[in-house]
Structure to design on (130 residues):
């Protein structure tokens, strides 16, 4: 059985972020799912598609590391700026949008600062992707 399709307004979380975020999908493909632009595995551009998650608490993030060092080792979260460099995985192996696999619930994307960004609410409820 397929997984729910991810669309614009899908809810995202990051393991090092302090707040959820909302997936932004540009309507360039012209494909709508339940009235919202459908997402693909390539909708992973930082800030454009994946907005910040409030504050970041990853020590791999240089701003967090510097602030923590300045606070004598007390973890000091700093504003999140996602740095995703690879497509979402796994996506849908059977449903293509503009030649790219459709994005589904449960897909994940890695941040360069060590966080795992995942879709916790795909934004669609009736449409399943293969």
């Amino acid at each position: 059985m397929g997984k729910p399709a991810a669309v614009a307004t899908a809810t995202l979380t990051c393991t090092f972020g302090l707040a959820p975020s909302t997936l932004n999908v540009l309507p360039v493909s012209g494909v709508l799912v339940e009235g919202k632009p459908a997402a693909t595995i390539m909708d992973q551009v930082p800030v454009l598609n994946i907005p910040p998650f409030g504050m970041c608490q990853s020590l791999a993030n240089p701003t967090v590391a510097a602030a923590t060092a300045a606070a004598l080792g007390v973890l000091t979260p700093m504003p999140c700026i996602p740095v995703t460099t690879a497509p979402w995985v796994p996506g849908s192996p059977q449903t293509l949008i503009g030649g790219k696999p459709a994005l589904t619930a449960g897909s994940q994307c890695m941040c360069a600062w060590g966080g795992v960004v995942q879709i916790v609410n795909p934004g669609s409820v009736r449409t399943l992707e293969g």
